[in-house]
Amino acid sequence: MSVVLLEKKNRIGTVTLNRPEAANAINRELARALREALLSLDRDKSIWVIILTGAGEKVFCSGLDLKERNTMTEEEIEYSRKAELFPLYFSMEDIETPMIAAVNGAAIGGGAELAMACDIRVASDNASFGLGEVKWGIIPAAGGIQRLPLIAGMGIAKELILTGRTIEAKKAWELRIYNDVVPPAQLMGRALAMAEELLQNSPVALRQARKAFRFKEAIHDGLSRDIELSNGCYSSEDRKEGVRAFSEKRKPNWKNA
Length: 257
Hints:
The chain is of the alpha/beta class. The chain has a single domain (4-186), classed as 2-enoyl-CoA Hydratase, Chain A, domain 1, CATH 3.90.226. The protein has eleven helices and ten strands.
């Protein structure tokens, strides 16, 4: 079974994260497959709009697959971050095709960062949003620190990132993180309606407008800096304790080391 489903219809490319049994968590296979799916749609000039969503009705994407991480050596983790994870988020800034996130449930950590890398975010009313990395001894280095201030403002971004708080869909809409919130049964219809509205416009203009809006160089520089700062977390005992505590379903015992 493919971890990413790809559908092309009526000039719309729909990409579905397909690991519902694992809360659509991003493992190494999904990171590679999602990047290739998005880039292939961006190369296809018959596709004018991309919709990104998740399988199921409870979770859009729960972020990194920490269970997989627990089985990896430190060398494997470092390689995966450099060769698989961060290239996915860098490439989402380079894509020229407008992207709509249909957030069908919880968007946590790296999942929230996937949603923020899209241009428009439509969410189901049972969705949520959270960048809880500090609770695990790390930082949201895959775009959270760079993109959330642009979307919700610096004050809100600092509050959500430093507390690691998860907010419900209505609150995320009030903070303008989500553009619209609808019942789960209406989510894909709303995302498709939004895509259809975009399709009324020139595809050349759509691509040029996305390029005009994006802050490619600034985002790339910021992501590179965040990755460097994140490396400091990954070498710390706090990061290891955060992962252990998550796996053992307990509060972490921070060492400040």
